[in-house]
């Protein structure tokens, strides 16, 4: 029993620690190192994002995306007119008739989204 | 404003601060460092690390804790968790620098008379720990300061379990003698680890 009591007292003694005089400076040093690591990480992520964006953009350019979109637009028009002949006209058909516009709107939204992400990354940096 | 952020975090419990830190909030973690930095550094000094070395290891331990904060589930105390990380980190450093063998082989026979208390009858643990050999001090501090089991300490020290138990027992015997109240004064911790 005395053994257990002594061990508990010892644990308590180990648990008691006075605040060192430079405790605040120590905490600041740790925070600075955390900040430095975080900044480096953000630069790395930002750089990876820029490289990825450049690669993605170049791939889009090289794959004649504009030409493909125009083809898709023509196809959508053709499909729309075919369906109009087959079935009674409905509201969603009207939307489909401007299929090419939908593609452009989606592309514009993607650009806006990329811009948003870019501004966030720049803001973080 | 950093000051207002600090004061906002100052009122939070450790577990809440850990939750904030897990989302990447470094100021919340800074508050944890402010609260427990001294006890972690004190533990390392008690294990035998010198001032600057103890601070280096403590910093590394806190950085490692921040990286692994999601692993802390609040089952024990945050301070205990970081202390275990710091103790293991210090041992790895000793092993890397091949100092651990010399320390564990070292046997220090110091006069183990009683009277570790100061003028007020309080007991200074740090003074008492000086009586212990390096291996005994490390083993006792790991088990009673960092809260490791004998087996965990043996694994961390890469020593047989029996050897660690022997070091702990010898260390406790010496501490018991040293910390025994000379005239019935209750054992009381003196707040000092410098």
Commentary on this structure:
The complex is a heterodimer of chains A (about 120) and B (about 190). Chain A is about 85% helix and about 0% strand. Chain A has two domains: about 30-65; about 65-125. By secondary structure, chain A is an all-alpha fold. Chain B is mainly α. Chain B folds into two domains: about 1-95, RNA polymerase sigma factor, region 2, helix turn helix motif (Rna Polymerase Sigma Factor, Chain: A, Orthogonal Bundle); about 105-190, Arc Repressor Mutant, subunit A, CATH 1.10.10. Helices cover about 65% and strands about 0% of the residues of chain B. Chain B is built from ten helices and no strands. The longest helix of chain B has 22 residues, at about 25-45. The radius of gyration of chain B is 18 Å and the shape is globular. The chains are: A mainly alpha (about 120), B mainly alpha (about 190). The interface of A and B includes residues 13, 15, 17, 26 and 28 of A.
Radius of gyration of chain A: 31 Å
Task: Note the total helix count of chain B.
Answer: 10
Give the helix/strand class of chain B: mainly alpha
- Characterize the quaternary organization of these chains: heterodimer
How much of the sequence lies in strands of chain B comes to: under 5%
Into which percentage range does the β-strand content of chain A fall? under 5%
Summarize the structure.
With 125 residues, chain A is mainly alpha-helical. Chain A has helices at 2-15, 23-62, 65-86, 91-97, 99-124. In chain A, 87% of the residues lie in helices and 0% in strands.
């Amino acid at each position: 029993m005395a053994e257990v009591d002594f061990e508990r007292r010892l644990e308590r003694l180990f648990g008691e620690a006075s605040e060192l005089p430079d405790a605040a400076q120590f905490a600041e040093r740790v925070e600075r190192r955390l900040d430095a690591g975080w900044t480096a990480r953000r630069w790395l992520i930002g750089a990876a994002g820029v490289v990825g964006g450049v690669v993605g953009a170049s791939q889009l350019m090289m794959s004649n995306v504009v030409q493909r979109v125009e083809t898709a637009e023509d196809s959508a028009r053709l499909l729309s007119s075919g369906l109009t002949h087959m079935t009674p006209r409905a509201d969603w058909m009207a939307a489909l008739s401007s299929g090419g516009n939908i593609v452009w709107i989606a592309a514009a939204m993607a650009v806006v989204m990329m811009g948003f992400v870019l501004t966030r990354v720049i803001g973080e940096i | 404003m950093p000051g207002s952020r600090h004061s906002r975090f100052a009122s939070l419990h450790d577990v809440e601060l850990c939750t904030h830190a897990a989302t990447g909030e470094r100021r919340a973690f800074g508050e944890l460092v402010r609260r427990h930095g001294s006890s972690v550094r004190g533990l390392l000094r008690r294990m035998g690390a010198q001032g600057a070395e103890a601070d280096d290891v403590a910093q590394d331990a806190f950085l490692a804790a921040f990286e692994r904060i999601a692993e802390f589930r609040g089952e024990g105390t945050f301070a205990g968790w970081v202390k275990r990380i710091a103790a293991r980190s210090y041992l790895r450093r000793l092993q890397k620098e091949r100092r651990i063998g010399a320390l564990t082989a070292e046997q220090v026979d110091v006069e183990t008379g009683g009277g570790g208390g100061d003028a007020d009858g309080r007991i200074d643990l740090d003074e008492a720990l000086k009586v212990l050999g390096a291996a005994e001090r490390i083993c006792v501090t790991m088990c009673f300061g960092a809260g490791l089991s004998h087996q965990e300490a043996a694994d961390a020290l890469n020593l047989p379990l029996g050897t660690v138990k022997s070091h702990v027992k010898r260390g406790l015997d010496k501490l018991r003698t040293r910390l025994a109240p000379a005239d019935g004064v209750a054992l009381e911790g003196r707040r000092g680890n410098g």
